[in-house]
Amino acid sequence: MSQQRIKAVIPAAGLGTRFLPATKAMPKEMLPVVDKPAIQYVVEEATQAGIDDVLIIIGRNKNNLSNHFDSVPELEHNLTRKGDDVKLRKVQESSDLADIHFVRQGEPKGLGHAVLRSRAHVGDSNFAVMLGDDLIDERDPLLPKMLAEQERSGLTVVALMEVDPDQIHLYGAAAVEPTDDPDVVKVTGLVEKPKKEDAPSNYAIIGRYVLKPNVYEILERTEPGKGGEIQLTDALQELATTEGVLGVVFRGRRYDTGDRLDYIKAIVQLASDRDDLGPELRPWLQEFVATL
After folding, report:
1. Are 265 and 22 in contact (CB under 8 A)?
2. How confident is the model at residue 3 (pLDDT cuts 50, 70, 90)?
3. Based on CB atoms within 10 Å of each CB, which residue in 7, 165, 210, 289 is the most buried?
4. Are 105 and 117 spatial neighbours (Cβ–Cβ below 8 Å)?
């Protein structure tokens, strides 16, 4: 299967300013979502889709990321000595997930620039880009459908989700046309964070992409856009008007950890669904809400 040959790229060089001071010395991707850092959910999603080669784009103060995916012999030895097999498996799980590589972005110049930094590692292959702010529930897999559509069509594929029109200014918005598959649309145009009245639709790009290597050539000559950054959306817009881009419409559970309030909601939602936490958490939540 072609999925086995595809590599995943996870940009994780952002400054995380919305979470200061927590992110002053720790990358936002390492903030815990229940009991795992956000980025581990993303790597797990890649491996569950058959990808075993992951490149993480890091910035300064991001050594915690590489440390998390390294083995920790002294900790593993202590847990083994204590006979704590459950915690030992949890510690080993993150270092055994995949073949994980790291490259520094240097100056943070936007998502397009971060993707461009993966060129030497990815080479001439198709690849998936997965943003750590968007956690996709493992019960509602998205990436396998995107990989299958890319293999079938030979086109670039992005993930789309219908959002409240009042929220579209927070996303890249897509102009779309239907196809024979109700879960797949043709993307005819893209606009980065438009005003509500300027948005072509309420289909928002969420943080999953299956890209072809020709995107690198476009990013090389893409001028900085909004915020003085090289926008991946601008490169996708060019592809949409030349060779075509498909959008897979996601209707499952997604957790946004890039915003403080949504981050808290994500923790509550995921913890409530867990067998080890939900039975005690849900009744407490009901009591707590009743007192408000």
Report:
1. no
2. very low
3. 210
4. yes
State the pLDDT confidence band at 4, using cuts at 50, 70 and 90. very low
Distance, CA of 270 to CA of 273 (rounded, Å): 5
Using CA atoms, how far apart are residues 289 and 129, in angstroms rounded to an integer? 38
Residue with tokens 């909004």: 226
Q: What domains are defined for the chain? A: 2-258 (3.90.550.10), 259-292 (no CATH)
What is the pLDDT of the chain when averaged over all its residues? Answer: 89
Neighbouring C-beta atoms of residue 213, cutoff 10 Å? 13
Residues in the chain: 292
Query: d(Cα 285, Cα 271) in Å, to the nearest integer?
Result: 11
Contact 79, 127 (CB under 8 A): no
Distance between CA 223 and CA 221 in Å, rounded?
A: 6
Q: Which two tokens stand for residue 181?
A: 């598959």
- Residue 60 CB contacts under 8 Å (≥ 6 apart), including other chains: none
Higher pLDDT, 46 or 89: 46
pTM of the full structure: 0.90
Residues near 179 by beta carbon (within 8 Å), at least 6 away in sequence: 185, 186, 246
Structure tokens given for 167: 């929220």
